[in-house]
């Protein structure tokens, strides 16, 4: 069976669960077998409103059906097949050819890219530029295959739609039509943010979401859990959010962008005196980590700190009202 047909396998293919259970899954926005596999059985039980035992049965059968149709042996597949899939990866134009080059083509679909840096280094402007380029046709470095949607989780509470107008104008995008396809969430606390991410599966398919941005991933956990005694809970929540986001973007071939704040390291005398927050939990669970820093005026340096597929590299971009671009020579 082709990959496309496997991707479209409905939960109606489940034979060992009742029609009532299937109806609960559909009411929760889970129509495909791959939707089910995004969630751990405990989380699936919470979302769909049935027992953990039922959720385990659903997940187990979904895995079995998909593996049989995909001709996997105990969940294993050939490395040669994975290589072909990676070569077919889609990329989103960042707005800067310099940045596209060090990223191997732009922000990769099916991955989460982190943008970390101090205040006013251009993290949000980079995200807004991506929101514009996403509406470009695929052949022009965009993600538009007809009619697409974008999700912005604005935990910083700084998004102003008018900031997008000069960026849209730069790329020839009609502002009103584009703004109608941008869905903005403003979580009130860290748990609200986690819930928003977990429930994105309900809106992804019907709105053809191609880009998910969380600006920022770490602000609310950092604000809600302040003491050392709350560090474990904060890190557990960050892990839950980033892992849920990774599963979503990988399953649905979406571009994922998250911004991150930094913390000062006063005991560091050589090298960079600041680092992204989130610790090893975040470092190990994003696909590519980018660090933005000041150079002068509106020029910023962007460095690949770590990546699952890219070598360390550094380039420069320019921050403008019309988004990020390359510095003038």
Model description:
The protein has 329 residues and is an alpha/beta fold. It folds into two domains: 3-69, DNA polymerase, domain 1 (Orthogonal Bundle); 89-325, P-loop containing nucleotide triphosphate hydrolases (Rossmann fold, 3-Layer(aba) Sandwich), CATH 3.40.50. It has 15 helices and 13 strands. The protein has helices at 3-7, 19-27, 33-36, 41-48, 52-69, 79-87, 97-102, 123-133, 165-170, 175-179, 190-198, 201-204, 219-224, 231-252, 279-283, and strands at 91-92, 107-108, 112-117, 149-153, 182-185, 209-214, 255-260, 262-264, 274-276, 288-296, 299-307, 314-320, 323-325. The strands form three sheets. The chain has a nine-stranded mixed β-sheet, sandwiched between helices. It has a two-stranded antiparallel sheet with strand order 1-2. A hairpin with a 6-residue loop joins strand 11 and strand 12. Helix 4 crosses helix 5 (52-69) and helix 11 (190-198) packs parallel to helix 14. The longest helix has 22 residues, at 231-252. The model has no long low-confidence stretch (mean pLDDT 89).
